[in-house]
Amino acid sequence: xxxxxxxxxxxxxxxxxxxxxxxxxxxxxxxxxxxxxxxxxxxxxxxxxxxxxxxxxxxxxxxxxxxxxxxxxxxxxxxxxxxxxxxxxxxxxxxxxxxxxxxxxxxxxxxxxxxxxxxxxxxxxxxxxxxxxxxxxxxxxxxxxxxxxxxxxxxxxxxxxxxxxxxxxxxxxxxxxxxxxxxxxxxxxxxxxxxxxxxxxxxxxxxxxxxxxxxxxxxxxxxxxxxxxxxxxxxxxxxxxxxxxxxxxxxxxxxxxxxxxxxxxxxxxxxxxxxxxxxxxxxxxxxxxxxxxxxxxxxxxxxxxxxxxxxxxxxxxxxxxxxxxxxxxxxxxxxxxxxxxxxxxxxxxxx
Amino acid sequence: xxxxxxxxxxxxxxxxxxxxxxxxxxxxxxxxxxxxxxxxxxxxxxxxxxxxxxxxxxxxxxxxxxxxxxxxxxxxxxxxxxxxxxxxxxxxxxxxxxxxxxxxxxxxxxxxxxxxxxxxxxxxxxxxxxxxxxxxxxxxxxxxxxxxxxxxxxxxxxxxxxxxxxxxxxxxxxxxxxxxxxxxxxxxxxxxxxxxxxxxxxxxxxxxxxxxxxxxxxxxxxxxxxxxxxxxxxxxxxxxxxxxxxxxxxxxxxxxxxxxxxxxxxxxxxxxxxxxxxxxxxxxxxxxxxxxxxxxxxxxxxxxxxxxxxxxxxxxxxxxxxxxxxxxxxxxxxxxxxxxxxxxxxxxxxxxxxxxxxxxxxxxxxxxxxxxxxxxxxxxxxxxxxxxxxxxxxxxxxxxxxxxxxxxxxxxxxxxxxxxxxxxxxxxxxxxxxxxxxxxxxxxxxxxxxxxxxxxxxxxxxxxxxxxxxxxxxxxxxxxxxxxxxxxxxxxxxxxxxxxxxxxxxxxxxxxxxxxxxxxxxxxxxxxxxxxxxxxxxxxxxxxxxxxxxxxxxxxxxxxxxxxxxxxxxxxxxxxxxxxxxxxxxxxxxxxxxxxxxxxxxxxxx
Lengths: 351, 606
Description:
The structure holds 2 protein chains of 2 kinds.
Chain A: H1 38-53, E1 60-64, H2 68-71, E2 81-84, H3 90-100, E3 105-111, H4 112-116, H5 120-129, E4 133-139, E5 142-143, E6 149-150, H6 173-179, E7 184-189, H7 193-205, E8 209-215, H8 231-237, E9 238-247, E10 262-266, E11 272-277, H9 287-299, E12 303-310, H10 317-321, H11 333-336, H12 340-347
Parallel strand pairs in A: 1-2, 1-3, 3-4, 4-8, 7-8, 9-12
Antiparallel strand pairs in A: 5-6, 7-12, 9-11, 10-11
Chain B: E1 13-21, H1 26-39, E2 44-49, E3 58-66, E4 77-82, H2 88-94, E5 95-104, E6 119-123, H3 125-132, H4 136-155, H5 159-169, H6 174-194, E7 212-216, H7 217-228, E8 232-235, H8 242-255, E9 267-270, H9 274-286, E10 291-295, H10 297-313, E11 317-325, E12 331-335, H11 340-344, E13 354-356, H12 361-378, E14 381-387, H13 388-392, E15 394-398, H14 416-421, E16 451-453, H15 467-484, E17 492-494, E18 500-505, H16 509-521, E19 526-531, E20 533-534, H17 538-545, E21 549-554, H18 560-568, E22 576-580, H19 589-601
Parallel strand pairs in B: 1-4, 4-5, 5-6, 8-9, 8-10, 10-11, 11-14, 13-14, 18-19, 18-21, 21-22
Antiparallel strand pairs in B: 1-3, 2-3, 7-15, 11-12, 13-20, 17-19
Helix pairs in contact in B: 1-4, 1-5, 3-4, 4-6, 5-6, 7-8, 7-12, 9-10, 16-19
């Protein structure tokens, strides 16, 4: 339905956030993806998360690479600058953008081809830098835009639409991120907005690299029997050991507490992430056990979802570099240039 | 160059060459000698011929002492300091007839290698070191300093100047000044007692270096980045560009760090590869910081995809390409000008880029600043093409000057106030007719937002596959490139109405200037044009049109400047004759003189 211009009609009854903006103010242009695409649900979750957090639209920066997933940055928060870069290289653009202005919220959207094949190197190093951003990996196990080749997250033995079986083991972005020292690792499902929205909010509040692997079925090329990233498969085989709720610093959002132990983790911006431990043995602060748990479940063909690992204490990119609090793009030239008199002193050692 | 009688005294006009083992600490002894000559007021040129290795391979350092102030390599050796047994036989052969050779006589050298047309001085450096110093490390290091002492006696260097230099180097470790001076004195005394000092080939005080510094182009370019207000540097280490970022880091540590809090007004990111390095530069520039990356040929190859994005999406980026000998890994520690075409047309599709060609450290400083202004004014990548010779060798340059009235040209960047006054914002319009659109920074206002993409887009930045909309943007980019002509630094001409001319660029300027003087002295009338930037301006067209024979002098095999002139100007390519030098060493003047004279002998009009 991409040929239809999106009508900008605001229902006066729509709820508004503290900025006086309604949910539609956080939308972007009309999606050009296939009807029923999981990615559109993720877009809707991002819209919801930004609206509920009442982020000024211009405080958001949207970044992506190339692929179906990467197109979606045009479909949310129209009032934010967006950068659709080259295939697999969004993390370096995000690194540079973040270096220039540490005070904006960086949302990166990528896919399994963009992140796990051509861009696995850049993803790995953005994780290592603990770049302050939310990195949403819309994972469908297939190359959609080029019509159905296997991606690096395709499961062993899964069959393509043409019937070929994949014989290469998949890269699990959650395990990859845990191994590389990521400070926030989560997984969700595009069809599970209740889980996904608070995870995105928690990721935005996290000071550091927040990766959310979102299983997002491809209705055209990978939503069939034999695919482990189909709607039906994920619904039947996902397992949530720990659920996250996000509590904004200013607003009172009442969360529904599930029975069982809860733990509230304060984030750098003053908000709190409340974790509900559904699995009594699960500890999201234990990296080694988190990795073991994800692997154990994977052996049983189950996807672990929720906030799998969190370490709010790790220093982010700017803290590591000791950069000034002021955004580098806003430091006055007078402060940056040492001036003619100092040049003379600098040259003394070259005489 | 007319060959002087080799036995004639060569006061303040000779070349010293040091043959050393890499990693033995010889570099500090060699630069001590060069700096001492410079401080005695005599112009010098230093050239380092080093291997792609950390320790153990042969390495050479050349110091040309030149009272005329020439800046090129001389191409001859008058005094060889042969400290490497492995290369001894070839080092002996390289000395010009009538020259001298200084060597470590602790161990005998084969008499088969001796020459009766040079003077040989043997000093038992290793033996003397073993007598006077303890420990293997001190003995190795002091052997270098000791040959500096022997040389000081032979070529008449002022020991007080040497002491002063050592005092500055070891300001925080005065004990080292004394041990180094002890080694100097031992070498000096040995030479005085055993040889007739000083030699006819020697240094005499002059006053020709006042107002000058000895600096390499990478350091000068880093200073330019500092003064231009660059805040983000991203790079992947690669010879010969590494010292540019090292220097930027040192300068920023001193001048961009809050002395109280230690917080930094800069960020240097060592990226995982050159692809990420240029991505970081593009991301930072897009977000309003002045950002740059230093690299060399292999890095340019890796960056090409992103460079095309920056060109098409119109994002500023500054790239320093310190060229080294290619293709492929090539000779990482040798010089060439071999990336002209790779940079001019970097990336797939129709792309053309702004290039700057500094000829000296002084221009590296100035053009670094210009590169940021041009990148922001034109919203496009700008390449500063140094080479290893300019970048890593020490050049005598006029003291760098800075105008405190300078303010960065941020180009057409809308302020929050301007945005507020607009009915709406469209990214890729051309309201001024110069092909340059207006841009906004993230974070200011929802009204200023736009979507940056490398896919087909229309004037407002929206995705398009519409032929007319696509072509409209592509044509405007063509107009913008024509606008660039007005902004790049113009070529410098030395025209006297001759029919023949030399056209050259970058580090070739030093040998060309020297060759011109010799040619003109021998009665050859010849003009000169040095291009300083690309795209070429009308002054280049006019100069090419006004000359019948044009020698295009450059340091690569495939005549890339000639190709660029042929493609981008109306010149008749039959008029262009190449003089090429591409063995990895800096070009000497003799190569140009020979090239011109041979052509004239064949009857080419001059």
